[in-house]
Amino acid sequence: MTQDSVAIVENFWREVWQQPQDPEAIDRLVHEDFVITSGGNHIEGRENFKAWVKGFQAQVLDFEFHVVETFQNHDGSRVASRWRVTGRNNGMMGTAPNGVPFEMTGTAVWEVGPDGLLRHNWVERNAFEVHGAVSRSDGTANVF
């Protein structure tokens, strides 16, 4: 039987990342051994992930999370989701919290367990371009 893992991932986005953000929802949405691989770095365990989310959210003023599209494989064990974040810099990537507006786009590939809990997230985003935007007073993004 195929589970609706698109609904599971989009519920995660809605509860944790969209306003009003609730990082505590992570306790019931992800497995205790959850891993996020972000930019090649592994954050392991539900509590470490929750701390990572809270830290990320604190670095963005006027945080808005937008789902672009989400789809799953044949059995729902993998989900791909494209997303976009808009906001203003509050110290992202070690920069001064200058309030400069930015837009971040990314792709997340999720492993969803048969119990409906999220097990792993591999995420990539346009960090190079965002770093350029938040480190300049005019918000001009780096272009690669």
- Average pLDDT over all residues: 94
Give the helix tally: 4
Radius of gyration: 15 Å
Please count the beta strands (DSSP E, at least 2 residues each).
Answer: 6
Uncertain parts: none
Major beta-sheet overview: 6 strands, mixed
What form results from the Cα inertia axes? globular
Q: Helices and strands: which structural class?
A: alpha+beta
Helix content: 25-40%
Separation of termini?
43 Å
Order of helices and strands: HHEEHEEEEH
Strand content: 35-45%
Give a brief outline of the structure.
The protein has about 140 residues and is of the alpha+beta class. It is about 25% helix and about 40% strand.
Written overview of the protein:
The protein has 144 residues and is α+β, with helices and mostly antiparallel strands. Helix content is 26%, strand content 40%. Strands 2-1-6-5-4-3 form a 6-stranded mixed beta sheet. The radius of gyration is 15 Å and the shape is globular. It starts with a helix and ends in a 10-residue tail after the last helix. The mean pLDDT is 94.
Topology:
Layout: H1 5-17, H2 26-29, E1 30-38, E2 41-44, H3 46-58, E3 60-72, E4 78-89, E5 101-112, E6 118-125, H4 127-134
Parallel strand pairs: 1-6
Antiparallel strand pairs: 1-2, 3-4, 4-5, 5-6
